[in-house]
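User: Let's play a game. I give you a shape written as tokens, and you guess the letters that built it. Ready? Here's round one.
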């Protein structure tokens, strides 16, 4: 059936040993034929017969003797069908060799060669068991599994038997479930955390309303004071809701790294400009150390601006009046170099990497470092920075009204960018946060 697809090279490979022997005999006979005796003539006739038989055997062998080879050629005809599927898909033969794949599968599973055993590109026991089930019993199955990575991936693999001629193959289609599962988890977390955090300002508001409609009703000074307090609580609720929504949006596509390019210098300059009224109000100086030329990174501009904004907001918030905040951008170096440059400046500081990229160590990164002259964070709390709703002040019993979501947002954005986040802190000197993301290759 698939004769026209067999190359001359394949045909040579398939000649049985007997046919080769006959061919060799023919060649010997031809040598003898240089003589002129009758024996040579007989041998010449034998040689011709042997050669003819060898050719016939060879051809017949293509069609009937190697079911294995024919199956391979036949299954390959299904390849265009696989290619049309948007999800990664593989076709494996009865011996679990990959005989067909589509571009999505080759890209995501990082393999090139056809004929590779499935076990060399996929090791999840449940999937391999389902493939055996499809090949041996003709059973279809869907298997879910998790692949640990910087952001864990969840995949549902559909395994179905495919009958092709007398043989059975199995088809595997991989469907990414990461978004669905993270959405489900986030919804549960969101409800639990948000309701807990919103309850405090809501309770204050309720109390203030009761006071205003009761004892403070006719006292205008009290009324103004309580209305001011209500405004503070309402603002806090709004900030909480904004931050929570922002965090859920980031988490939703955290497993999809950005492919855009952004200029980190420009992002830093814009954030600095937007903060000038706050800086003036708080009497804090912002020192900008940003190169004149662009620092092009792989990243989403809006999200990178959110990172810089949140870090500078914190720095300004914790710096006493008259203090200085430094915002610095620089690009160059692999992970180790950038970590040393951006995260290890103060001799007596405690430091920690809140996030480290899992990509190959030789990638080049650019960083943004925000340094303040505030109180610093004591060593014991450093690992908890970036945890949702974590606030040092709350731990120490002097609540200041932050949401505890700013650094969580920073951490998730940097994680989406497959970058790193460092903090060093020296009580009395200040804190410094540095985020680094991959440099874009020069065009
Ligand atoms: P918040 O809205 O409370 O600032 P963040 O997530 O931005 O939330 O920060 C979490 C906690 O980390 C803060 O409550 C504070 O205790 C601590 N923190 C963050 N940045 C600084 C800083 N620059 N100096 C001192 N402490 C900081």
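Assistant: Ready! My guess for every position:
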């Amino acid at each position: 059936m698939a004769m026209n697809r067999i190359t001359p090279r394949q045909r040579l490979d398939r000649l049985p040993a007997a046919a080769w022997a006959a061919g060799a005999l023919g060649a010997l006979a031809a040598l003898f034929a240089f003589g002129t005796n009758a024996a040579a003539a007989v041998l010449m006739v034998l040689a011709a017969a042997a050669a003819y038989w060898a050719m016939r055997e060879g051809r017949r062998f293509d069609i009937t003797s190697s079911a294995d080879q024919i199956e391979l050629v036949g299954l390959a005809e299904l390849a265009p069908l696989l290619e049309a599927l948007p999800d990664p898909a593989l076709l494996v033969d009865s011996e679990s060799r990959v005989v067909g794949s589509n571009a999505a599968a080759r890209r995501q599973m990082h393999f090139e060669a056809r004929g590779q055993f499935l076990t060399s590109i996929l090791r999840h026991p449940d999937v391999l068991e389902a493939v055996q089930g499809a090949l041996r019993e003709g059973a279809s199955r869907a298997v879910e599994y998790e692949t640990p990575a910087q952001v864990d991936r969840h995949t549902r693999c559909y395994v179905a038997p495919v009958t092709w001629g007398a043989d059975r193959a199995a088809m595997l289609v991989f469907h990414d479930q990461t978004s669905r599962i993270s959405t489900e988890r986030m919804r549960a977390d969101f409800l639990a955390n948000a309701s807990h955090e919103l309850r405090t300002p809501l309770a204050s508001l309720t109390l203030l309303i009761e006071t205003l409609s009761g004892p403070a009703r006719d006292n205008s000074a009290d009324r103004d004071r309580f209305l001011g307090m209500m405004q503070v609580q309402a603002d806090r609720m709004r900030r909480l809701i904004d931050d929570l929504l922002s965090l859920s949006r980031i988490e939703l596509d955290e497993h999809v790294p950005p492919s855009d390019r952004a200029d980190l210098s420009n992002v830093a300059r814009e954030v600095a400009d937007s903060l000038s009224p706050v800086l003036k109000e708080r009497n804090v100086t912002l020192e900008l150390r940003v190169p004149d030329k662009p620092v092009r990174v792989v990243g989403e501009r809006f999200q990178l601006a959110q990172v810089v904004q949140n870090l500078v907001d914190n720095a300004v918030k914790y710096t006493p009046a008259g203090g200085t905040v430094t915002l610095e951008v620089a690009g160059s170096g692999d992970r180790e170099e950038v970590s040393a440059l951006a995260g290890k400046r103060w001799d007596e500081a405690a430091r920690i990497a809140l996030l480290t990229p899992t990509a190959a160590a030789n990638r080049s990164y650019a960083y943004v470092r925000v340094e303040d002259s505030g109180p610093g964070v004591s060593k014991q709390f450093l690992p908890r920075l970036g945890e949702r709703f974590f606030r040092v002040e709350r731990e120490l019993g002097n609540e200041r009204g932050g949401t505890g979501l700013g650094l969580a947002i920073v951490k998730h954005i940097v994680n989406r960018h497959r970058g790193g986040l460092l903090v060093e802190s020296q009580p009395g000197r200040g804190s410094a946060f540095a985020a680094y993301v991959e440099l874009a290759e020069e065009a």
